[in-house]
# Entry
Amino acid sequence: MKKDLLKISDYDAKWLSSVIELAEDVKNNKEKYENHMHRKTLLMFFEKPSLRTRVSFETGMTQMGGHAIYYDISTSPMGKKETIKDTAIVASRYADIMMARMYKNEDVRELAENATVPVINGLDDLAHPTQIVADLLTIKEKKGKFKGLKFVYAGDCENNVTYSLMEGCVMLGMDVYIVGPKEMMPKKDAVELTEKLASQYGGKLTVTNDMEQAFKDADIVYTDSWMSYHISKDEKDARLKVLMPYQVTTNMMDKTKDDSIFMNCLPAMRGHEQTAEVIDDEKHSVVFDEAENRLHAHKAIMLRLMGLA
# Structure
């Protein structure tokens, strides 16, 4: 078995399904796992900030009897005075597992390649695998299945969340629609990888600029922030102009199935990627259940990579 979780497609659909099942058990039987991390330490490297990633990982370790350390890369010599390789080797002698939330995929991979303990990618510029495990757990809870569901991602499609969703959803047999402006389509490599996974596992990928086509009879609608951390204030107005036709509105949600769900990994800006009416709609919106599931998913990922469950 691989040591690390750097991207969803590093594993197969069987492994992914098993981690989701473990997350369900962790969520429903909290006491069963309360000592699984006894005397274990998680070291968390943060180059990009996050409320949900930090709190869910740290809380998860505490609830399982372990301990988490927050390490801010911006105030450290990591990658500057000291190489990432040296940091990985030294940190492996202190911690039992690491999580890294960094700007560059190559930096996360360098950390993993030189660490002797498991490394979890908490987000980089190409992937966000831990979020997608939480998302898939949420879909299973709400829909009871994956195969045959129509999944729509709308908005800025050239980002880590989109790429990881594309991989995970087709691996579990979903019909995935990625819809957004032509200026913000997924990278060619991401599309090619997803199409390969779709042919292997039975899912389907459609990349389009047509909102009507994408939203018609959808089971799941997903969107994410239009203003990621790397976006400057100077770019805001131009981005809003391009993206506004791909905003998730009640009119668009009316085109989906009556029992469809709306997802956003948060943080969300009402009036940007979705209207307030959509995200606050108790019938369709599951964003806070989705956010909670970060905790259970992260517990399951750590347990599995450490061979403790």
Remarks:
- The chain has a mean pLDDT of 96.
- Strands lie at 41-46, 67-72, 97-101, 119-123, 150-154, 175-179, 204-208, 220-223, 261-264.
- The longest strand covers residues 41-46.
